[in-house]
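User: Can you predict the 3D structure of Hydrolase? Sequence below.
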Amino acid sequence: MTPARHDVETSHGPGRLEVHEATGEPVAVVLLSHGAGAGIDTRDLVALAQSLPAQGYTVALFEQPWRVTGRKVATPPPTLDDGLRAAAARLGEAAGAVPLVLGGRSAGARSALRTAGELGAVAVLGLAFPLHPPGKPEKSRLAELEQAGVPVLLVQGDRDPMGRPEEFPDPLPDGAEMAVLPGGDHSFGVLKSGPLDQAEAMEMLVEAVLEWLARNV
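Assistant: Sure. Here are the predicted structure tokens for Hydrolase:
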């Protein structure tokens, strides 16, 4: 099914939603935004948008205004939060009482964690959560994970320079759990000589997300 596309007015310019409708009555709406260096066409967002609707989940991919207008670099974090709020409001007009799962990759994951409480999300999906800037582990963003207040699934590649699994606290903050993609980097790209090929890595991602959604939504 061809996804529906909707313009989203935000206080920082127009954003865009690409909505992949669930087959049948939706169990939940999964709203995902992209990272600071790419759009909604990253391999993980595409894999989820292609796979989750058949399992009863509507997937809405939100393209932030900076990306829609052709900028190369993301605008500051508060503007990303404003965009996500506008996207959630636009979705809410159509979704009604269907539960909202908020999420995204990298900067999008951070934004979802910061806004989950105010937007009434029942859970947060964090893909490649950037625990710290590259090479600066002392600048931890753990507080954003701790404030979520709802179940959280982090999906991390074990080669991610912005947050390898062993850099996270053990145990994780209450309500959080992690799925690890062996051989994955920050973009979930895998080594040719690694334990998984690219297709297998995306299959593992989708399976982990579906299992977590089944338990938490």
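The radius of gyration is 16 Å. The beta strands are 4-10, 13-20, 28-33, 57-63, 100-105, 123-127, 152-157, 176-181.
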